[in-house]
Specification:
It is a single chain. It contains 19 helices and 14 strands. Bound molecules: nicotinamide-adenine-dinucleotide (NAD).
Length: 468
């Protein structure tokens, strides 16, 4: 009788384990109730992916329009694969959106802070949103919680957040805090979240780090490295990582300029150095400089943080300086080839700071546009996704609805964002639309032979320039 009972129990247990593993969850995986404060790029991707791996997540934001549209299954950002996951998890009742921040704090055991830390006027990270959130958390701390900061913040900020929460914690409710830097890249953020190289958490208490490890257990199961550090190290890791990648970009851009002078080809050089594992092939693509919502502001904030601590980061400063001059260098080169921008029509291809995103924050394309407009050019711009994100307050700048419209009657073309649509376009037909034949591909995206056959005079970065 006993044997029969235990054997049935054993088989039921094995069956349950198989079912759970087939769903991608570790047999010891636990589902938590999580609140995410700030539903921007990071908060939305984080919240949706945490729901996808089995947790119950409430994403909150003060922006009513954003939350209303999310509750209707409409995604305010363009991010590959995100929409399907949001809709799926909304239907499965694992993902909720609300503007009731206090309620989201009170009803969840784990809170992630993902509000923005934009650049302030003096270049430092503006921490107002983060500190506001800390005050709201403190006031609503009615039962024990663990708080993970994900916003990118300078060294020492998590300690300040802890103090603010403590000062507003009138119920003296116990809480723990950790810092979990976010490394996702816009354009591939869902995949980056689900398949990261590494997951880092900084915590004072080992239990906080191990709780974080449990939250992301299904992701770690796929092979990502897990690193638990002090809070200060985790804060530093985020800035140091972004700064290192920025240095790599400025480095290859300078090498590209040098290549032009000596007849070398930067793409061959990048491959030759990138095959060395110590260097790595990523981020060795020359272009109009780094942009977007992270690298420009994070490098500046890192420099400012160093200055405040009485030191200098010369290498990072040099990378920022190179980057600041990059767009004007490109425009100057185009101007030399055109003679002048005065009353010239230019097709600007791409407005997003990179492909596969609609984010135009600190986009090099917009800097190129501004400089050319100042020099008297008329810009006809086109972006497959980001066109509606750009404010159009200059009569010399028009966002067109199609690539064909952007090319009509232009003296030259400047390709600023490497969208696939540009790669697949029929450039022979396009040549019938343009007035001039000059084509500056500052992403080295297009095939020189194809463009030559289409009778465009193709200029790319870091290539031989014996014509000029
Ligand atoms: N965007 C990225 O690729 C990326 C990658 C890694 C890290 N980060 C960092 O993550 C943080 C968030 O970046 P983002 O791009 O998602 O910013 P974002 O501007 O897209 O989103 C921030 C959101 O926070 C909301 N918010 C502000 N104050 C709030 C409050 N008190 N309560 C509730 N909501 C509030 C805003 O309305 C906004 O929707 C930043 O620190 C950023 O540096 C961003």
């Amino acid at each position: 009788m006993h044997i029969l009972f235990f054997s049935r129990f054993f088989f039921f247990f094995v069956f349950l384990t198989i079912i759970l593993s087939s769903k991608g969850f570790a047999s010891d995986a636990r589902c938590y109730k999580i609140g995410v404060i700030g539903t921007g790029y990071v908060g939305l991707v984080l919240g949706t992916c945490l729901a996808e791996i089995g947790h119950t997540v409430t994403c909150c934001d003060l922006d009513t329009r954003k939350i209303d549209s999310l509750n209707n299954g409409l995604i305010p950002i363009y991010e590959h694969g995100l929409e399907e996951l949001v809709i799926k998890n909304l239907h499965d009742n694992r993902l909720f959106f609300t503007t009731e921040v206090a309620e989201a704090i009170q009803s969840n055991d784990i809170i992630f802070i993902t509000v923005g830390t934009p650049e302030s006027l003096n270049g430092e990270a503006n921490l107002d949103f983060v500190f506001d959130t800390a005050r709201t958390i403190g006031k609503n701390l009615k039962n024990p919680k663990t708080i993970f900061v994900k916003s990118t913040v300078p060294m020492g900020t998590v300690q300040k957040i802890k103090e603010i929460i403590t000062n507003h914690n009138h119920f003296n409710t116990p809480f723990e805090i950790g810092y979990a830097p976010e490394f996702l890249r816009e354009g591939s953020s869902v995949n980056d979240f689900m398949n990261p190289d590494r997951v880092v958490v900084g915590a004072e208490n080992p239990d906080t780090a191990s709780l974080f490890k449990k939250i992301v257990a299904p992701i770690l199961k796929k092979g990502a490295k897990f690193l638990s550090t002090s809070i200060a190290s985790a804060e530093m890791i985020k800035y140091a990582a972004n700064s290192f990648l920025s240095v790599k970009i400025s480095f290859i851009n300078e090498i590209a300029d040098f290549c032009e002078l000596v007849g070398a080809d930067v793409d061959e050089v990048a491959m030759g150095i990138g095959l060395d594992k110590r260097i790595g092939a990523e981020f060795l693509k020359p272009g109009p400089g780094f942009g977007g919502s992270c690298f420009p502001k994070d490098t500046l904030a890192f420099l400012k943080a160093a200055e405040k601590n009485g030191t200098s980061l010369h290498v990072i400063q040099a990378a920022v300086d190179v980057n600041d001059f990059r767009p004007s260098k490109i425009v100057d080169r185009l101007e030399t080839m055109l003679g002048s921008f005065d009353r010239k029509k230019i097709a600007l291809l791409g407005l997003a700071f990179k492909e596969e995103t609609d984010d135009v924050r600190a986009s090099p394309a917009l800097k190129l546009m501004e400089i050319m407009v100042k020099k008297g050019a008329f810009i006809q711009a086109y972006d497959p996704i980001a066109g509606t994100q750009v404010q159009n307050d200059s009569p010399n700048f028009e966002v067109k609805a199609s690539l064909i419209e952007a090319l009509a009657g232009v003296d030259a073309v400047l390709l600023a964002t490497p969208w696939k649509e540009f790669l697949e376009f029929d450039w022979t037909k396009a040549r019938l639309l343009t007035k001039g034949d000059l084509f500056f591909d500052c992403r080295n995206l297009l095939d020189p032979v194809t463009m030559n056959e289409a009778t465009f005079e193709l200029i790319q970065i870091g290539k031989k320039i014996d014509r000029f």
